[in-house]
Specification:
The structure holds two protein chains of two kinds. By secondary structure, chain A is α/β, with parallel strands linked by helices. Chain A has 18 helices and eleven strands. In chain A, the strands form three sheets. In chain A, strands 2-1-3-11-4 form a five-stranded mixed sheet. In chain A, strands 6-9-5-10 form a four-stranded mixed sheet. Chain A has a two-stranded antiparallel sheet with strand order 7-8. By secondary structure, chain B is mostly helical. Chain B has a two-stranded antiparallel sheet. The N terminus of chain B is likely disordered. Classes of the chains: A alpha/beta, B mainly alpha.
């Protein structure tokens, strides 16, 4: 009987213990504990650098204790959404720039507008790209990405083609790309293409090209889809020509099959002589030992179509006042010249601190990237960016793959993307 | 006789030890011992199910308070072209996958149901993909179906046939995914069939041989009925697995090209975890649950006609 009682007691204690362990332990030391989330692969150089910067920050701010929450990109945002739902989100996290408004529109983020007024905006790039339709700012830039034209110096020299200049137009690009396209083994298929036109990631593909040709994707505070225009059609026709009759770019099926990540190995492995690439694409090219340069994107009938994504620190609306203050301290620390220069050593993003950017970016790439960033518009960010761009991209892809005519693809894409936007904003007061 | 029996029964009942008295304390102990399981059941099964049923009738973005919309999510689903397309993709995938895997698993089980040296090695070889993750399988699949370097196009080239864009062609992507899924899953179903085959008494085959039954007739009248229970299990499991398919398309195609391989669970995942529409995602989950349940009930109903439990 006694043994049974003991066993039952043990079972009950175990149950209580298991249940209790599901909760969180309170910190009664008086220090502010800040949970800081960011995305990086485990053991990645970015992960190491971030941990070093956190150590530096906590050493300078002993009353703030930082708990890091790190996961690879997809996992990080998947977990974050459930954390937000459960009221367990980190107090400060690094958000993909295009997702800031998605979180903000659903009331998950603290409005940083007043805090941003306390810094000298001229010292930083990208602040305005985070301003929403009502002038509010929910994220502070951490690092910027903007596409420019990458070119392979050796392939240009071999083909005796002059390097791209700031005056290049899309016609100049096409003419050079044709000369750079080579079938070296004589099997009837090019081994080296002049240009990579299509990418599953539209930031380095059809989005800036459509803008350069005078079309646009969304207007009116990013709530009206306007992609169905003769200018957009001209842009996509140019791309179809590059991948088809002109033959200076690998076709849709080939590049789509490579996927968003691998498609950039085309430039790094010298299979294409030119490619649009954001700053992060310098990393694979440098690792592969490619002798490359960067130039401004060519001019279309309506300019270069520069766009940018500014990955940003955001603060949870659920953070206490002390945690929000600590989070802002972290943000201003990270935006400082020292941490920004250290982060720039990774070579994965353009520093948003202008002094750090001028000093840290390699001289031969600085001007193209910084000019592009200055001229850039945002990537159509709104509360349903992920959903409406996916609806749109599916249809544009149909046009570029030849599955449906470009006219039809643009019209259907516009209609479906608009439906997504309208569904969200109908009845919204924000 | 009846009277005697009754008396005997009464006597026996009188000799039986009295039924133990149930103390209320014992009931508490019983619940105390069962409490871990009960808590698990309530917290991790019943509660999430009820919560998702509630969310399916709300507009819930994971951040704000859920707003009750009645059957609004279900009404929206009926007009959602993407939902219907994903359901069509799932059905097409199932039509290709379920019969192919079942037939192939049975064929392999029969081929490997031999008492020969080294047979365990072959069985293990077919089972290896089952325990491999989809990420690993995706790499293997790329080696086979890559349009430029893949084995499949090399074989086509050998026979003078044009190369195909297996995973990039909307018309080919589902059949290609089904082929990869069969390759990964056939080993498990093969093991189930092997167990079924080995449970058929050898004497039946011997008797049939003595009666002059041909190999086909032995298969038709002994093997197939003998494993009908296993076949039924395989069909039910495979059908449920197909309707729940997610990881494979998530890793291999992400639903592409332009949605041609987007299955219903991937659509559900995107709505809930990428587009902040957990209410709508929950509604899709419940419709899918009802479909799985209906399909399983139909299979149970039909099994009376063809499954023999020896």
């Amino acid at each position: 009987m006694r043994a049974r009682k003991l066993a039952a007691a043990a079972a009950a204690v175990l149950t209580v213990a298991v249940t209790a362990s599901c909760g969180g332990a309170a910190d009664d030391s008086g220090a502010v504990t800040l949970r800081l989330g960011f995305y990086a692969a485990a053991g990645d150089a970015a992960d190491t650098t971030m941990r070093e910067l956190v150590k530096e920050f906590t050493a300078a701010n002993p009353s703030i204790k930082v708990q890091l929450e790190v996961a690879p990109y997809v996992k990080f945002f998947e977990k974050l959404r459930t954390q937000i739902a459960g009221g367990q989100a980190p107090q400060v996290w690094l958000s993909d720039g295009v997702l800031v408004q998605e979180f903000a529109a659903r009331g998950a983020l603290a409005d940083l507008s007043d805090r941003v007024k306390t810094v000298n905006a001229d010292d930083y790039s990208g602040i305005e790209l985070n301003r929403d339709a009502k002038g509010r700012i929910y994220g502070f830039p951490q690092g910027a990405q903007t596409p420019v034209l990458f070119y392979n110096k050796k392939l240009f020299a071999d083909a005796k083609v002059d390097a791209p200049t700031a005056d290049w137009t899309y016609d100049d690009l096409a003419a050079a790309a044709k000369k750079l396209t080579k079938d070296t083994n004589g099997d009837g298929k090019p081994d080296t293409y002049g240009f990579r036109a299509y990418s599953p990631g539209f930031t380095e593909s059809w989005w800036p090209i459509i803008k350069a040709f005078g079309g646009d994707i969304v207007t009116d505070e990013n709530r009206k889809v306007v992609i169905d225009s003769p200018q957009s059609k001209a842009a996509l026709d140019w791309m179809l020509g590059a991948m088809g009759k002109d033959g200076f770019a690998p076709d849709y099926a080939y590049t789509q099959g490579l996927g968003k990540g691998v498609v950039h190995t085309l430039f790094a492995t010298s299979r294409v002589a030119m490619s649009y690439g954001i700053y992060a694409r310098t990393l694979p090219a440098v690792s592969a030992g490619v002798d490359f340069g960067v130039a401004p994107m060519p001019k279309g009938p309506a300019g270069r179509g520069n766009v940018a994504i500014v990955n940003s620190w955001v603060v949870s609306k659920a953070a206490s006042a002390a945690q929000a203050d600590a989070a802002w301290k972290w943000i201003t620390f990270f935006s400082g010249e020292g941490p920004q220069s250290k982060w720039a050593e990774l070579g994965e993003a353009i520093p948003i601190n202008k002094k750090a950017a001028s000093a840290a970016l390699p001289a031969d790439r600085r001007e193209a990237f910084l000019d592009s960033l200055d001229a850039a518009t945002d990537l159509g960010a709104n509360a349903v960016w992920s959903e409406y761009t996916e609806a749109l991209a599916k249809r544009v892809d149909e046009g570029l793959s030849g599955t449906s005519p470009v006219d039809t693809a643009l019209a259907t894409g516009q209609k479906e993307a608009q439906e997504v936007i309208d569904r969200f904003y109908a009845g919204q007061t924000q | 006789m009846t009277v005697l029996t009754r008396r005997a029964g009464k006597a026996a009942a009188e000799q039986r030890p009295p039924a133990p008295k149930r103390h209320s304390g014992e009931r508490i102990w019983a619940f105390a011992f069962a409490s871990p399981y009960l808590l698990h059941l309530v917290a991790l099964a019943a509660w999430p199910l009820l919560a998702s049923l509630f969310f399916s009738m709300t507009d819930y973005d994971l951040v704000s308070e859920p707003r009750f919309v009645g059957f609004g999510n279900f009404t929206r689903m009926f007009g959602d072209d993407v939902f219907w397309r994903t359901l069509g993709n799932t059905a097409y995938f199932a039509v290709l996958f379920v019969p192919t895997q079942t037939a192939l698993a049975l064929g392999l089980a029969i081929a490997l149901n031999q008492r020969l040296r080294g047979m365990a090695l072959f069985r293990a070889a077919y089972f290896v993909p089952v325990v491999s993750s989809w990420v690993v399988v995706a790499y293997v699949a790329d080696a086979v179906f890559n349009p430029q370097t893949g084995l499949a196009n090399q074989v086509l080239d050998f026979f003078g046939l044009p190369a195909e864009n297996w995973l990039q062609d909307p018309a080919l992507v589902i059949p290609t995914l089904a082929a990869v899924a069969v390759w990964k899953g056939v080993g498990y179903m093969m093991v189930l069939f092997l167990a079924g085959l080995q449970a058929i008494p050898e004497e039946r085959y011997e008797a049939a041989k003595i009666d002059g039954a041909s190999a086909w007739n032995r298969f038709r009248y002994i093997t197939l009925p003998g494993i009908s229970g296993t076949t039924f299990l395989v069909l039910v499991l495979t059908s449920i697995e197909t309707l729940q398919s997610f990881e494979q398309v998530f890793v291999m195609t992400d639903g592409g090209p332009h949605g041609a391989s987007e299955l219903t669970v991937l659509h559900l995942y995107r709505q809930g975890f990428q587009f902040f529409q957990m209410g709508y995602a929950s509604a899709i989950a419940w419709v899918l649950f009802v479909l799985v349940l209906a399909l399983t009930l139909v299979q149970f109903r039909l099994q009376r006609r063809w499954v023999h439990y020896a």
